[in-house]
Design a protein that fits this description.
Layout (H helix, E strand, L loop, with lengths): L2 H31 L7 E2 L4 E2 L5 H6 L7 E8 L2 E5 L2 H9 L1 H4 L8 H5 L7 E8 L2 E5 L2 H9 L1 H18 L3
Antiparallel strand pairs: 1-2, 3-4, 5-6
């Protein structure tokens, strides 16, 4: 193979790689945008989980409010953080720090309904943050988290569909 032909082949491969990367980027953006209705959001403020810092649940062991100085738009909503480090951690691994089921109460999800959880009623099990509507659901969850999560996981696709596009 001549040097000129090799160079043309390399350019074609590079162009194909760039096109694939662009397509994947657009697909990822569309997938994130489709999550908007699947995250508990205050429709007046546009803030996810009432403006609480999702990383603080893990690092500080408490629901702590974020600040407007450290915001990040992800999954179609605005997330707030207490500091730049928490924002960076979330940006790098939102799948770890986002509340499971988008912040909807897992006990309600297990019943097949979407009920927004509240940031001040929460628990971390394994590596997942769960928010609950009330202390009764929190207690039901802590009594048998394996069963609730298994049932909620099974029902979540149906609940997601009920939330709209």
């Amino acid at each position: 193979m001549t040097a000129a032909r090799r160079k043309r082949k390399q350019r074609a491969c590079l162009a194909l790689s760039v096109a694939i990367a662009a397509a994947l980027s657009l697909f990822a953006a569309a997938a994130r945008a489709s999550l908007t209705a699947r995250v508990v959001v205050d429709w007046h403020t546009g803030l996810a989980i009432d403006g609480y810092d999702p990383v603080a649940f893990f690092t500080d062991g408490a629901p702590l409010p974020g600040t407007s100085a450290f915001e990040l738009r992800y999954a179609g909503v605005v997330w707030r953080f207490r500091n730049i480090g928490n924002r960076a951690a979330f940006a790098e691994r939102p799948d770890i720090y986002m509340p499971r089921y988008g912040g909807y109460d897992p006990v309600a999800v297990a019943r097949g309904v979407a009920v927004a959880g509240k940031p001040n009623i929460w628990i971390i099990v394994g590596q997942s943050l769960f928010l609950f509507y009330d202390p009764t659901d929190h207690q039901k969850f802590t009594d048998d988290p394996v069963h609730v999560v298994a049932t909620a996981d099974r029902k979540w696709p149906q609940v997601e569909r009920s939330l709209g596009p």
